[in-house]
Amino acid sequence: MRRIFAVSKNDTNMHEAKSRQKIEESMLRRRDVAALVAEIHGVTADHVRKVVRGDRENEQILATYMHIIENDNMLLRAAKDVVPFKQDLNPEA
């Protein structure tokens, strides 16, 4: 005998899939600059985050971090200038 059960959204894996998708999207959005700077200077990413926060002092690490962030921002601005974004998606309405 087959039994049919009502399944709510919470019982399915949809919630887990959506949360995984959000995590993956956030990872794709921005690279981990602290980890990159840590690799360059041979320290931990946590140490770099402490330097950026001001808990530790290291001018070289801070300069490298700021240089990478500024270059990322310039690249993002250049990409936004090249790609034509329409403000109004439905111009006829």
Short synopsis of the structure:
The chain contains 4 helices and no strands. The chain has helices at residues 14-29, 33-41, 45-53, 59-82.
* Helix-strand topology string: HHHH
Q: From the alpha carbons, calculate the radius of gyration and give it in angstroms.
A: 22 Å
Mean pLDDT metric: 79
Profile the largest sheet: none
Gap from first CA to last CA: 56 Å
Number of strands: 0
Strand-residue proportion: under 5%
Coarse shape? flat
Low-confidence segments, given as residue ranges, are none
Structural class: mainly alpha
- Helix fraction? 55-70%
Q: How many helices does DSSP assign? A: 4
Task: Describe the fold and architecture.
The chain is mainly α and 93 residues long. 62% of the residues lie in helices and 0% in strands. The protein is built from 4 helices and no strands.
